[in-house]
Amino acid sequence: MTHVDLSPLNALDGDFVVPGQPDYETVRHIWNGMFDKRPAVVIRCASPHDVGIGVALARDNGLPLAVRGGGHSAAGHSTVDDGVVLDLAPMHEVVLDVESGIVAVGGGATWGQVDAVTQRHGLAVPGGVYSKTGVGGLALAGGYGWIRNSYGFSCASLVGAELVTADSSVVRTDAEHHPDLLWALRGGGGNVGVVTQFLFEVHPVGPEVYFLFVFHDGRDGGIPRALGLFREFCSTAPNSVSALAFAGVVPDGMEGVAAEAFGRPFTAFGAVFLGDPSAGEEVLRPLHDFGVPLFDASGTTSYVQVQQMFDPDYPAGERHYWKSVQLEGLGDEAVALIADAAVQPASDLSTVDVWHLGGRTHEPIDGAMPVTSAAYLISPEANWRDADRDEENIGWVRGLVAALHPLSNGVRYLNFAGFQEEGDELMRSSLAPNYQRLAEVKARWDPQNLFRLNQNVPPAPA
Ligand SMILES: Cc1cc2nc3c(=O)[nH]c(=O)nc-3n(C[C@H](O)[C@H](O)[C@H](O)COP(=O)(O)OP(=O)(O)OC[C@H]3O[C@@H](n4cnc5c(N)ncnc54)[C@H](O)[C@@H]3O)c2cc1C
């Protein structure tokens, strides 16, 4: 970096950190401990002006550029060796206009920060199931969580944005202004620029909801039976229910579970019902009453609390490798493969997650994210602590994905896509039939592919 002139950074509204400064060890890290990189500079952006300066610094000096929203990219996109990191966390303002039903969200806000504002009015934007993920990474590549079947993917609620493009211009997009950019932001990742403000439509949610969260014993074929019940339940579930099943072995020391159950196979059901909570309890009873629960945190609770329920389970700095396949149906063969993998994970922190995609997740989006007819997204997530065990943990995920692949539609969810080692092939299969159109938008706005540390689609050739 000795050859790079950092003097433009003196004009920042925010600040920056370089190696050797006290904060450097903190700011260089992201959530996934698999990525131990050393950026040349981390710019803590406080305004679109700062983002423009950072983009210019990378562009004019030929440095790699990483954009960080909430820093929770499982694929490690928001840090880079010897390059520029734009940390958007200081831009986390959330302003709700109840009358228009639109919330303006800073480019570095987390979903917890959004919920804190919208839930005061019983409103929400569909986010994920964890409050610390950034709005940026999650929504730009799709985004689904506890209200997906009622209101669709996060990107489907995106109605406008302010972004900084590769030439450092600040541009606004909505249905009338540069609609190609809005189209690309709905599922096309960070390919066309750095979003400094999102505009989302909000929807009525809670503030109290019925939440099902129960672990059932998975011994003696319990996992296939539970997944069979889950399939039957989901086949007739109303759109007001968004349900998830996950299977694994009870981790040692899990709070709220009797010690003799540690190490036992389990299937857990989690679901949110939007509407009268007592009606939700009735609707979800079959999943609740499947067996005598090993653990049960079900009940009427605030949507904000539901959103934070999994926060303690994913502390920063541990090691993670997550991948996914989409299935049109949950046949017996898939169930058997899932159950086999779930009872022999390489780490007891790992699970195989089975998300039901129903209701509005099947509605076409006017955006880069293709419509899906898949009813299930299967996501094996390996979570572990010991660097010596990387290979077996990654191998466990890859093994299940490879086994399920022939039963799937070939599409990966781009936020759960391993470390994107399948490169362009992954992007083509997961964005088809919108890949070419996204490449053309990319060519218009980022012809040099400056924004490439992401779910990258290279610019279409001129
Ligand atoms: C614990 C945990 C739980 C999760 N749960 C869910 C879930 O329920 N549903 C779901 O859909 N996904 C979920 N995910 C996946 C999540 O969507 C991705 O990991 C996502 O990348 C996180 O976004 P982020 O902003 O925190 O990431 P970051 O690491 O900050 O960013 C990732 C990439 O997104 C792009 N980006 C981020 N912000 C901007 C911006 N403002 N402008 C332009 N580009 C930007 C950049 O390319 C960046 O490299 C979860 C992840 C974790 C770690």
What does this entry look like structurally?
It is a single chain. The chain has 462 residues and is an alpha+beta fold. The chain folds into three domains: 9-87, Uridine Diphospho-n-acetylenolpyruvylglucosamine Reductase, domain 2 (2-Layer Sandwich); 94-204 and 433-445, Uridine Diphospho-n-acetylenolpyruvylglucosamine Reductase, domain 3, CATH 3.30.465.10; 208-407, Vanillyl-alcohol Oxidase, Chain A, domain 3. The protein has helices at residues 24-27, 48-61, 111-118, 135-140, 148-151, 179-185, 222-236, 277-288, 303-308, 332-343, 390-404, 423-431, 435-445; strands at residues 15-17, 41-44, 65-68, 84-87, 94-97, 102-106, 123-124, 158-164, 170-174, 194-201, 203-204, 208-217, 241-249, 265-273, 295-296, 299-302, 319-322, 325-327, 351-356, 376-384. The model has no long low-confidence stretch (mean pLDDT 97). Bound molecules: flavin-adenine dinucleotide.
Give a brief description.
Residues 35-205 form the FAD-binding PCMH-type domain. With 462 residues, the protein is an alpha+beta fold. It is built from 13 helices and 20 strands.
The proportion of residues forming helix, as a percent range, comes to 25-40%
Small-molecule binders here are: flavin-adenine dinucleotide
The total domain count is 3
| Inertia-based shape | globular
The separation of the N and C termini measures 33 Å
* Biggest β-sheet strands, sense, barrel: 9 strands, antiparallel
What CATH calls the topology of the largest domain is Vanillyl-alcohol Oxidase, Chain A, domain 3
Instruction: State mean pLDDT (0 to 100 scale).
Output: 97
Class of the largest domain, according to the CATH hierarchy? Answer: Alpha Beta
Strand tally is 20
Structural class: alpha+beta
Rg of Cα set:
22 Å
Family: Belongs to the oxygen-dependent FAD-linked oxidoreductase family.
InterPro entries: BBE (IPR012951), FAD-bd_PCMH (IPR016166), FAD-bd_PCMH-like_sf (IPR036318), FAD-bd_PCMH_sub1 (IPR016167), FAD-bd_PCMH_sub2 (IPR016169), FAD-linked_Oxidoreductase (IPR050416), Oxid_FAD_bind_N (IPR006094), Oxy_OxRdtase_FAD_BS (IPR006093)
Keywords: FAD, Flavoprotein, Oxidoreductase
Protein name: FAD-binding PCMH-type domain-containing protein
